[in-house]
Amino acid sequence: MSKASTKRISAAPSWLGLTPDRSSFVFLPDRAEIVRKIFQLSTGGMGSYAIANYLDELKVPTFTGSLNWDHTTIDSMLRNRATYGEFQPKSFAAGHKRGIPSGPPISNYYPAVIDKVTFDAAQVARQQNLSHRGRKGNDLANIFGDLCSCAYCGSKVIFHRISNVQVLVCEQVFNHSACSRTAWTYRDFEITVLAFLAHPALVAQASDELKAALLDLIEEIKGLASDPERRFARRVNITVLVKRIVARLVVHSAGDLTRPRQSSAQIRKDIAGRFLEIQLQAGPSYPCISVA
Q: Can you tell me the distance from the alpha carbon of 163 to that of 165, in angstroms, rounded to the nearest whole number?
């Protein structure tokens, strides 16, 4: 290897080290695992603020020696193409501290800590989080993210507050469309879904892969009561696990709706007869999970 190559290889991403002869990169195992976890949380729908809070609550050491993780560090890591092995040569002219790209990027220069598919999925997730600027990503009031859809029109069912009550409601309700003009109190919805997913009968008939995720979910749910100091981290874990288990949740917030309510009608909450359909990942659908 040339001296120029040896000099260039001395600059490694924070999750990589060098062999004693400085000829190749090696993973710093603990840091590499943290990077993978950050991408897992991002593709699971978590914003950079929420990921930083999660790491802080678990007292995961930062890569810089700082006491706390910063959301900008998380966001920068999620955009760093070195994570899947790409290196961009740069020249450092006066006045450009971060360097100017010099020549085309080099593939497979670093060992990949994640694959390109995961990187691309994280970019999509980041853009979705940036489109919801109303919350900074550290509000885990809704653990279901984009899993919920409206049974009546197929639109997304979104998290909303009505008179300080947290609800799930079809987004068309706010787009000058009547749809069902009904909502489901979020707390009741969450209890209903988690109780179903934690039911022993579901665990007993699940595939081995799905069963493992369901058992992990049950432990995290139990931990919410027994370990309140880690409540935020546990809700993050529950969010990730739910997305591993559930493909979609179809919400019938008004039960068997015969016709839409008028667009000027008041939004009604928790109508008797409401139910949902739970579609498991690579598994069956469970319709008519009834709620009185």
A: 5
Q: Which CATH class is domain 3-130?
A: alpha beta
Mean pLDDT of all residues belonging to the chain: 84
| 265 in Cβ contact with 176 (< 8 Å) | no
Does this model's pTM top 0.85? My answer is no
Taking a C-beta distance cutoff of 8 angstroms, is the pair 46, 236 a contact? yes
Residue 198 corresponds to which tokens in the numbers above? 């934690």
**What is the 3-class SS of the chain, one letter each residue?**
CCHHHHHHCCCCCCCEEECCCCCCEEECHHHHHHHHHHHHHHHCCCCHHHHHHHHHHCCCCCCCCCCCCCHHHHHHHHHCHHHHCCECCEECCCCCCCCEECCCCECCCCCCCCCHHHHHHHHHHHHHHHCCCCCCCCCCCCCCCCCEEECCCCCEEEEEEECCEEEEEEHHHHCCCCCCCEEEEHHHHHHHHHHHHCCHHHHHHCCHHHHHHHHHHHHHHHHHHHCHHHHHHHHHHHHHHHHHHEEEEEEECCCCCCCCCCCCCCCEECCCCCEEEEEECCCCEEEEEECC
What is the spatial distance between Cα 170 and Cα 274, in angstroms, rounded to a whole number? 14
Per residue in 257-285, pLDDT (tens digit) is 887 777 778 888 999 889 999 999 977 88
Domain ranges of the chain: 3-130, 148-290
- The string of pLDDT tens digits covering residues 103-154 is 788 999 999 999 999 999 888 878 766 655 444 444 467 889 889 999 999 9
pLDDT band at 292 (very low <50, low <70, confident <90, very high): low
pLDDT class of 94 with cuts at 50, 70, 90 = low
Check whether 59 has a pLDDT greater than 80: yes
- Residue 129, classified by CB atoms within 10 Å of its CB into exposed (0-12), middle (13-18) or buried (19+), is buried
